[in-house]
Design goal:
This protein is α+β, with helices and mostly antiparallel strands and 143 residues long. Helix content is 29%, strand content 29%. It has three helices and six strands. The chain is elongated and about 80 Å long.
Length: 143
């Protein structure tokens, strides 16, 4: 009987350890996700033109990397989630490396070459909308 009692306690301990591990794994993605307002200035838009060097269409946010025309620097532009983008007409092939685009977006609070995309504009006038600005927000140079 003593051996059965020890086996039962060992199983209970294993179940507890597994439950804690699952809880930690589930909590990690929620901790990693960040608030828009913490990282981006929500009442101002910036505009950057250049050539796309990379487009990643995956969760939690898509990423466009752009070699900017104005200063030759590289910009990182974050989109909404692919699920939201699909509802707005985006696909994994909407943007390709080598595409020339203009991106309007919300600048990073830390002053880095990073933004949250409002829209992508192609030379032919086509647009991809990622996140609409709140009422009253103007792009650079507009009142």
């Amino acid at each position: 009987m003593h051996s059965r009692s020890l086996d039962r306690e060992a199983r209970r301990a294993s179940v507890r350890v597994a439950a804690v591990a699952v809880g930690l794994l589930c909590a990690a993605p929620s901790v990693a996700h960040h608030s828009f307002a913490v990282h981006f200035v929500e009442d101002r838009l910036v505009t950057v033109s250049g050539v796309v060097t990379e487009f990643r269409f995956r969760n939690p946010h898509g990423i466009v990397t752009l070699a900017a025309d104005d200063d030759g620097g590289e910009w990182r532009a974050e989109t909404n989630s692919p699920n939201i983008l699909r509802r707005r007409g985006w696909t994994p092939d909407s943007i390709k490396p080598g595409d020339r685009v203009t991106i309007e977006g919300y600048p990073a609070r830390d002053g880095s070459h990073s933004m949250r995309i409002y829209r992508v504009i192609y030379p032919d006038g086509r647009e991809l909308i990622s996140q609409r600005p709140p009422a009253g927000v103007a792009a650079d140079g507009e009142d």
